[in-house]
Amino acid sequence: MLLLASLHNISRSIGVALLYVVSAQSTFLLLGAEMTVYHLVKLFRSDYTLFVPGIEGGWKIAMAIVFHIVIKIICDFTGMIHVRGAKLIGGYLFCAITIYSQLLPFFSMSIYNNTELENKIPGDELRTLLTVFAIAWVNLMVLFFFFLIKREYWHTFVDTTTAWQATINQFRR
Question: Higher model confidence: residue 28 or residue 58?
């Protein structure tokens, strides 16, 4: 898991860094757009507020905003599989975010390579580095998924259960 998280962090960080070198403003716009889409998906699915007993009103909304920002950043830069639970990010959204984070460096590289900059990293070297990281990450993910995760938990990576549905299911069980 440490190696998986490290490779995920390196890939995502390289992707953001390449975009930042090209345009800081565009990078912040992209990161803001990612965060906005995440929050809208959670809102659209009625899966935004937290289920914390005793907290209501404005505090509940404020805590949900901070919570979702922190969890999204953790997922973006670590790929930590523990946040795939329904009460955190959710299985399908975790997979979407993780795959997107692995594709971002290649998108960033294409923009970086097509921009005139001084002291650029050669495109072939960058492509090789990102490809090696991606292949290593995919292989580790496959090994981790098929050999370390119990078969009965595989569905949690694509589960569409919302936090409120998980809370009701847990109460009924």
Answer: 28
pTM for the predicted model, two decimal places:
0.85
Q: In 45-90, which residue ranges form alpha helices assigned H by DSSP?
A: 57-78
Best CA proximity match to 159, nearest among 89, 91, 87:
91
3-state DSSP call for residue 43? helix
The full set of domain ranges for the chain reads: 2-172
Tokens of 74: 């953790």
Cα 84 from Cα 86, distance rounded (Å): 7
DSSP at 48: -
Ramachandran angles phi, psi of 115, nearest 5°: -115, 140
The DSSP element (H or E) to which 173 belongs, if any, is none
